[in-house]
Amino acid sequence: MKLQLALDLVDIPQAIELIKEVEGSIDIVELGTPVINQEGLKAVREVKAAFPHLEVLADVKIMDAAAYEVGNAAAAGADIVTILAQAEDSSIKGAVEEAKKLGKKILVDMIAVKDIETRAAELDVLGADYICVHTGYDLQAEGKDSFADLHTIKSVVKNAKTAIAGGIKLETLPEVIKAQPDLIIVGGGITSKDDKQSEAAKIKALMNESVTV
Ligand SMILES: O=C(CO)[C@H](O)[C@H](O)COP(=O)(O)O
């Protein structure tokens, strides 16, 4: 089970400082959509250059021109690139094929998908590397989470790794771990804390504990 740190509300120097604090506890660092919208793929390039040992995910949330967008994110140094589950099947296929060609991975984001079970099964057949259930900020504000959706995708996905994102924090982690996703994505649950290093370490320790039990 891997831990991904999501960085959404920072500029590049702040991202680098933050990663330095927690790099011992994380497996993947995500340059979030707001960061890439502000700073461009330069954010991916600079973070990968500073932390070559970490996997870097570019949360570009592709909707179209998928192979082209994957190629650009990969050229900037992304190891994993995101596409929205609501994209056309031909876009998903294009993203998957391009990523395979370049030795990269595709994470498909299920945000706003209504029929999670059907779409997850389709995405699995289309060759997604990760399928991620995700409660975005706007639904988090309404008190929603993706815990039930994680169980749904776990029951239908045969090949892809499963992931969960959206408002996860130390207090809610045990419920997430119970479903045994391959990847847990935490943003504010770490970045909003005064002692980010200690929070990330506690989260990683809890994840490791569940693997050895
Ligand atoms: O993709 C995102 C928002 O669209 C975030 O990166 C993701 O939701 C994780 O951040 P947080 O744990 O703060 O919700």
Automatic annotation (TrEMBL):
GO terms for molecular function: 3-dehydro-L-gulonate-6-phosphate decarboxylase activity; hexulose-6-phosphate synthase activity; orotidine-5'-phosphate decarboxylase activity. Its EC number is 4.1.2.43. InterPro entries: 3-hexulose-6-phosphate_synth, Aldolase_TIM, HPS/KGPDC, OMPdeCOase_dom, RibuloseP-bd_barrel. Keywords: Carbohydrate metabolism, Lyase, One-carbon metabolism. GO terms for biological process: 'de novo' pyrimidine nucleobase biosynthetic process; formaldehyde assimilation via ribulose monophosphate cycle; L-ascorbic acid catabolic process; one-carbon metabolic process. It catalyses: D-ribulose 5-phosphate + formaldehyde = D-arabino-hex-3-ulose 6-phosphate. The keyword DNA-binding does not apply. Pathway: One-carbon metabolism; formaldehyde assimilation via RuMP pathway; D-fructose 6-phosphate from D-ribulose 5-phosphate and formaldehyde: step 1/2. Gene3D superfamilies: Aldolase class I. Residues 2-203 form the Orotidine 5'-phosphate decarboxylase domain. It holds the Pfam family OMPdecase. PANTHER family: 3-KETO-L-GULONATE-6-PHOSPHATE DECARBOXYLASE SGBH-RELATED (PTHR35039). Belongs to the HPS/KGPDC family. HPS subfamily. This is 3-hexulose-6-phosphate synthase.
